[in-house]
Design goal:
Elements (H helix, E strand, L loop, with lengths): L3 H19 L4 H14 L3 H7 L3 H13 L12 H13 L12 H22 L8 H33 L1
Length: 167
Amino acid sequence: MQKSWLINAVLFQLAWFSAALLTEFAVVLISLLLVLHFLLLDRKLVDAKLLMLAPIGWLLDSVLLHFSIISTSNDWIPLWLVILWCMFILSLNHSLLWLSKLAVHWQSLIGAIAGCSSYMAAISFGALQSSFPWLWQIVFFALSWAIVLPLLIMLRAKIIFRNIQTS
C-alpha cells in the first residue's frame, strides 16, 4: 500500500506525457496504463467507484471546448482526454491523496496553479490549442480548477465514506 502512491504517480505522469505528446495516438497507451493501474494497485473496488467522478472532468473540458477556450482536432472531447481524466481521478486516491488533508482554500490554490499549468503545458506541447489571449487562458483555467479540484476531493471523500459504511 505504501508504494501505491509512487506506482500511481509514475503511471499518471506516463499517461499525461503520452496524451500531451501523442494525443490521439496515445489512446491505446493510456488505456493500457489504466489497466495496469488496476492490476498493480490494491484499492480496486474503491478506485472503480471513484471513476464515477470522471464525468465532472469531461464536463469541464466540454465546456472549455464549447466556448472555444481550448480546441482540439475535433469538436468533441477527444478519447485521449477522456481516459486521461480517469487516470487523474484515480490519482486522487493514491499519489494525490495528500490533497485531501489540506484545507479547501489550499486545495483551490493548488488546483488553480497545477490545473492551469497542466493546460498551459498541453497547449505549449500542441495537444490543445487556444485562440484566447494568454492572460485569459490563465484566468479561465485557474478559476475552473480552483473550483473543480476541491469539488473532486470532497466527492471522493463521500464515495470513500459510503464505501466504508457499506463494507
